[in-house]
Amino acid sequence: xxxxxxxxxxxxxxxxxxxxxxxxxxxxxxxxxxxxxxxxxxxxxxxxxxxxxxxxxxxxxxxxxxxxxxxxxxx
Length: 75
Prior knowledge:
By secondary structure, the protein is an alpha+beta fold.
């Protein structure tokens, strides 16, 4: 896994962590926006970690694009 990944204008650190969950369910990956981190579940298989990293990267890119379009329409 890469140590860092760039999504549009933001660089995120990629880390593997144990017991990644959202309170109720186990997660394969999660973006921590304020920490500028993408977390991957260390217990997942290598293929699942790759898929989670792609998912979190694409989802984050879509959030960024949506926010840019929103703020651009307000100008």
